Amino acid sequence: MAVLQVSLPNNWRPRAYQEDLWRYLMDGGLRAVTEWHRRSGKDDVFLHFTAVAAHKRIGNYWYMLPEYSQARKSMWDAINPHTGKRRIDEAFPAEIRKTTREQEMMIIFHNGSTFQLVGSDNFNSLVGSPPVGLVFSEYALSNPSAWAYLMPILEENGGWAGFNSTPRGNNHFTNLGKYAKTAKNWLYSLKTADDTNIFSPEQLESIMEQMQATHGDDYGKSLFLQEYYCSHDAAIPGSVWGDCLDKAQLSGRIRHVPIEPKVPVLTAWDLGRTDATAIWFFQMFGGEIRVFDYHESNLKDIPYYVKLLKEKAAEGGFSYGTHWLPHDARARTLAAGGKSIQQQMIDANVGRIVIAKRLDHVDGIQAARATFPYCNFDETKCEQGLEVLKHYHYEWDEEKRVFSNMPTHDWASHGASAFRTLSLSWKRPKGVGGEERPLVERLSDESINNLTFGKLKNKHLSRMKRQRSSVFH
Question: Which phi and psi (to 5°) does residue 210 adopt?
Fold first, then answer.
């Protein structure tokens, strides 16, 4: 019987500008950062190399998208417009496969290696052996905690990792690129539209004009420079609180924030188990909100967080006041024999436990905007949390060509939700203008859902009374 032989890479060869990356990987390079412009074939190189690597060393190989929900559309089912074939089928032809699990987006090869598409939002829920080869596709949009979690695994097993992306402002991808430029044995590769010549000058001009027509002249141009010239200066598209953070930076409110040992420490939470739990640590002091620490982790139970709280208190020499939990903590359980999260926290005796009032996303976002001017953030301990707040962005509606009024649910959602909890927990101190009632109550009163005819009538009568009083005085 004739034996069918397949040569890898399968019917593909790197373009001229891709050869430095290809040679580095084929020669055994273990860490590669590719900052290449849109449509430059970043994923083609890494997909075909993964096919080769899986037949050089038996092991598990993961291809990681920012979100698991993106993986099927953007990679597993994606069609190469030049050939009409699935990109997955081109890189991994049927002849080298033993099994294809469509539902799991997983391929098992005849030699025992596996390839699987995963998300940076679900990597720690996967069971089985960890990877020996890993690719982050669009790393600038991925959860940076995924690499922090997987890095020691690859260091221990001698595995390799590739990071490909176009920039998304100054974030964790920017920092990784800076590190890769000078780190020993790392490859850093930057390719703009001028380096690849994929697009003609006329095409690039047309693309920029279209982006400006969609997003306005200034923002459209900055997005064009981001996508095709790898600029890190463009703001994250649709950033919910980007302007608030810019103002905090310019006014010197992102700095070293000391802890006042005699002032109670408050915390604000967003709770999860299969996804992240996020906690902000802050103090109310001198008319300001001192946000001095941030924590986020996955797959942990309440005893873990109780231990964390106690360790931080012992290390910082402070005691806790109120822990503000999200509205669902009263109903949800996190192990502990069916006890609610709220009850588990009360039993742990780590401070006063309060459930924050519930507001919809729109009102919660506005509450946070009203809170930012009072906040001072520790630039070191809150670095991850600030990255979360900066990345939190509205979802882009491709059909309507506008941003929706709902933020995208991704790795930044949990820290952002915890900050919304923070914004619902404080009240303006005496002597700092305005009333003392908690912000959430003021927002709730002003919500259209809570305005009855009686309230409107009373407001109108009070306003008319004040006007008459001003006339007579």
Answer: -65, -40
